[in-house]
Specification:
Blueprint: E1 2-6, H1 11-22, E2 26-31, E3 46-49, E4 67-70, H2 77-82, H3 84-105, E5 109-115, H4 138-157, E6 160-166, E7 168-170, H5 186-194, E8 201-204, E9 216-217, E10 219-221, H6 222-235, E11 241-246, E12 252-253, H7 254-265, E13 271-274, E14 283-284, H8 289-295, H9 303-317
Parallel strand pairs: 1-2, 1-4, 2-3, 4-5, 5-6, 6-11, 7-10, 8-13, 9-14
Antiparallel strand pairs: 9-12
Helix pairs in contact: 1-6, 3-4, 5-7, 7-9
The protein binds uridine-5'-diphosphate-4-deoxy-4-fluoro-alpha-D-galactose.
């Protein structure tokens, strides 16, 4: 297939692009480089520097695209609560521009990077796709809105669409790892302590109703995420909108992640107890049974793999 990867210069998008190329697909990466990196675009992919507002110039009827993978989005929960208008404009407005262009060019297949943030505060231990969706922040609300747009586009215009609800993406693959100007995620921050770029890590909240009082998350290796994109891209049919959770089905607390980072790297990671971060649910763990049953996907890589692979890429790069 010839696939347009919107956001393919970002962390997850670049790994998805490399995975597409590895199995013989062709990829055109479209990215405005607002948070992505030109040098993250894998060799073998074409690159177009463009915002989604101009995607119609690339996604033309005669360009021959078979499908789109859409990962271009603003993705910081905290920022979304500071600048909601930016998130609605970029995420929802961008998705509308993309769907318009796909309709005009008659490209009828899309895989979209949705999020666990669509669920908000879960009331079950394992979150299935049928769980209540009540996002607690603007970022999650924009992702849920796009999921609903895809449902309508499928029903009315016959689009084949997949919403992949990532839980906590981590790790690295194909030499590509996380590299955010503003780093907010647990494992990259812990590794910055390991490499001496920070002197400690703040543990946000130690009084949650969890076994050790810190938040529990379902960490999922970025290579496992990429595999799910490829499988669902091929499986989805016209007029379908499929929603799939992507997680391992097991949760790790902040303290357990820090233990893994210390064990894998052999470095101390000083931490300090800190107040809760606003908007953090106590526990977010996925049931990924639906995608396992439908397309045979399962997470294959462990938390240790995620930390080790992220650390290796960081060491190879020489900077955080
Ligand atoms: N944490 C710390 N200290 C830090 C950073 C994080 O204690 O310095 C904690 C957080 O409070 C949280 C856990 O580590 O309990 C994981 O935090 P991350 O920021 O790594 O990830 P989130 O769970 O907040 O965010 C992830 C995705 C988002 C998505 C969200 C859904 O990265 O895109 O899940 O709730 F929106």
């Amino acid at each position: 297939m010839l696939v347009l990867v919107a956001g393919g210069a970002g962390y997850i998008g670049s790994v998805v692009t490399a995975a597409l190329l590895e199995v013989g697909h062709e990829a055109v990466v479209l990215d405005d480089l607002s948070t992505g990196h030109r040098d993250a675009v894998p060799d073998g992919a074409s690159f177009v520097e463009s915002s989604l507002a101009d995607v119609g110039q690339t996604l033309t009827a005669d360009a021959g695209f078979d499908a789109v993978i859409h990962l271009a989005a603003k993705s910081l929960v905290g920022e979304s609560e500071q600048r909601p208008e930016l998130y609605w404009r970029q995420n929802v407005g961008g998705a509308m521009d993309l769907l318009d262009a796909m309709r005009v060019a008659d490209v009828r297949r899309i895989v979209f990077s949705s999020s666990a943030a669509t669920y908000g505060e879960p009331d079950t231990d394992l979150i299935t796709e049928d769980a209540r969706t009540e996002p607690t922040n603007v970022y999650g609300a924009t992702k849920l809105t796009i999921d609903r747009m895809l449902a309508g586009e499928s029903r009315v215009h016959g689009l084949g669409a997949v919403s992949l609800r990532y839980f906590n993406a981590a790790g690295a693959a194909y030499g590509l790892g996380e590299r955010h100007a503003t780093e907010t995620h647990l494992i990259p921050i812990a590794l910055q302590v390991v490499t001496g770029d920070r002197d400690h890590l703040s543990v946000y909240g130690t009084d949650y109703p969890t076994p050790d009082g810190t938040c529990v998350r379902d960490y999922i290796h970025v290579a496992d995420l990429a595999a799910a994109h490829l499988l669902t891209l091929e499986a989805v049919g016209p007029g379908e909108h499929r929603i799939y959770n992507l997680g391992c089905g097991s949760g790790y607390s902040v303290r357990e992640v820090l233990t893994a980072v210390r064990e894998v790297t052999g470095h101390p990671v000083p931490d300090q107890d800190a107040p809760r971060r606003p908007g953090d649910p106590a526990r977010l763990v996925a049931s990924s049974d639906r995608i396992a049953q439908d397309v045979g996907w399962a997470a294959r890589r462990s938390l240790t793999d995620m930390v080790r692979d992220a650390y290796e890429v960081l060491q190879a790069r020489g900077t955080p």
